[in-house]
Amino acid sequence: MPIILYVLFAISFLPFVMAWTAIYFRINQFGTFDNHHPRQQQAALTGTGGRVQAAQANAWEALLLFTMVCFIAYASGLDLNRLDGVALLYLATRVLHPVLYIANLAWLRSGVFVVGMGCCLYIVYLAASQ
Q1: 69, 10 in Cβ contact below 8 A?
Q2: How many angstroms from the chain centroid is the CA of residue 26?
C-alpha cells in the first residue's frame, strides 16, 4: 500500500488525540468534564486549553483537505508511490502543527502550516500534470 494512504490513516487520529488532550485542560480549568454540554465547555477554554481546542479544529480541517488531495491524486491515475516523500513531509507538518499551537509559537506554527499546504498543492499539481 502506498505511504500516502498510511499518512492519511495516521492523520485521521490527530483530531481525536487533540480532543483527548483537551479533556485534561477542561478538567483542569473547570474542575470537571461536562459531557452533557461538551461544546459549551470547549468553547469556554482559555490559554493552553483553548489552543488545544483550536488545534483540534485545525486538525479536522487539514484532514478533510488531505483526504480530498489523496482522492484527486488517486482519481488522476498518479502513481501514489511517487508521493512518499511529500506525504511524509505532510505528516511531519501535521504532527508538529499542534505541538507549536499548544506551545503558543504562532509564527512557527503558521510556517509549518504553509509547508503542509504546499505539500497538498504540490500533489494536486502533479495530479493535474498527468
Answers
A1: no
A2: 21
Amino acid at 68: M
- DSSP for the chain? --HHHHHHHHHTTHHHHHHHHHHHHHHHHHSS--SSSHHHHHHT--HHHHHHHHHHHHHHHHHHHHHHHHHHHHHTT--GGGGHHHHHHHHHHHHHHHHHHHTT-HHHHHHHHHHHHHHHHHHHHHHHT-
d(CA 29, CA 24): 9
Tell me the pTM. 0.94
Nearest-CA neighbor of 118 among 72, 65, 54, 78? Answer: 65
CB distance 7 to 88 below 8 Å: yes
Domains, the chain, with CATH or none? 3-128 (1.20.120.550)
pLDDT tens digits along 22-73: 999 999 999 999 999 999 999 999 999 999 999 999 999 999 999 999 999 9
